[in-house]
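#dry-run=false #mode=assembly
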Amino acid sequence: MKIAVCVSHVPDTATKIKIGQDEKTIDSAGVTYIINPYDEFAVEEALKTKEKFGGEVIVLSVGNDANKETIRKALAMGADQGILLKDNNSRDSFSVAKALAEEIKNLNCEIVFTGKQSVDYDNSITGQLIAELLGFNCATVVVDLKIENNKVIAEREIEGGKEVVETELPVVITCQKGLNEPRYASLKGIMAAKKKVIEEKPAACSENLVEIIKMKKPQEKQPGRIIGTDSSAVPELVRLLHEEAKIL
Amino acid sequence: MSDKIIGVLEQRDGKLKKVSFEVVNVVSKLSQELNLDAELLVIGNEIENLHELSGYGISRVTHFKNENLNFYSTSGYSQIIADYSKEIGSKYLIFSNTSLGKDLAPVVSIKLNAGCLIDCINLITDSEEVVATRPVYAGKALVDAKLKSEIKIITIRPNVFKPKSNGQLTKLNVTVKDVTSPNLKSKVVEFKKSEGKLDVAEADIIVSGGRGLKGPENFYLVENLADVLGAAVGASRAAVDAGWRPHREQVGQTGKTVTPSLYVACGISGAIQHLAGMSSSKYIVAINKDKDAPIFSVADYGIAGDVFEILPALTEEIKKYK
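#status=ok
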């Protein structure tokens, strides 16, 4: 089975965000980039799927040379092949998905894993877009997955519980925390990943459908007051919640 | 005849969800500002409370009906919505940014060659175009964005656009369309309800616990307070990663981003990832031993004391109040 994993290269979640001079993107000076945390679950699930059914895990990413670091991370975990679909311009989810879908089609993959969202633009749509572009089924925000023959049974996290989705291959699965525990790359894996050649090709051309007009900081919340240091402050807190916040 | 705007409503167990009325509110506003004809669409089997739609100034409702569509199906729902949208020539489609909306909207967008803006928290119209504000980096920044596609899809963050009835009853014109053979290539076959009474993603009040609770056995203090407030229980990433609480309760950048009316943080120091996920709550109460903890920088009211002393006292005081 040919398995694709789509990964993105994002600022570490501990990053303090500063707006860039263009007022459309962030100021990336001093920012550490990592593999998107949800994509780690995708890589792990792809590796587990390969261990069960055999085949090949191919990691794909759209972006510039810096993304190679994230591709290499996935290779070190055990992926077989890495492809960078190169583009130095910023792309929206649609144009990223179109580039990925075209390559996945050429590769003839039957199953695609990716994170349920990337923690930069938080769109949570790339997986579904890829699925629809390829005519694949899809299950999103998946926390449990079973594949038997052609049949796919996925549990997805929704408000107040889990939905059990039944579908068939070929499929795109977007992965949520809880699906698995991503493995650490072994020293051997890291050494092997250094030797693997990451194939580079231009990302398929496509237009952005979303135009960013301006990026800005949210209104800073004014720090409130500390009303006390022990339970004698509780009646005052309840009074404030009632009279000021009008919640109780 | 003017162009159309469709609001896609959501039902669970045959009842329109609260978020559906938020969609109605937005559709009503945009239809006036953009001079569009408004329509509402809902997919399911029997739906008991369609009549509640009559106070919002939109009369046209289309109910696509089939017993196999009571549960969600990505393939079935997306096909129906895309086909209907093409049939009536809709220019805008509005969804709620729920688990269902997030799954469905992008699939519909490919079928319609439309772009979509996800999780919008503010919508303004500027020279006949919608400019949406949406959080990025889990709310550490916001972007104003618009769509360049001819057909535009927008999902709105739950709990932000509160439904407003205009006080007048509109006569509803409900068309029921029986769907004869829905596309069920992928379908939900079961819903497993989680043990918690309320979900953090939907709750209007959240009480969250962190490492300061010292262990899973002490979370009953958080649960008791949540009970008297009618709140959902949340947790910090530290509490989830330690295995004290299930992941679905995690609030923050790798958990859920929430905007309740009241957020009570108990024994949570306030890592940047946590603050990103909850600091747009309307009111924030923090209870933490360390008066220098970052959580106090976003809290409206703080008590710099021991959660083990304060939580039971607060629970009792609120009980008295009610």
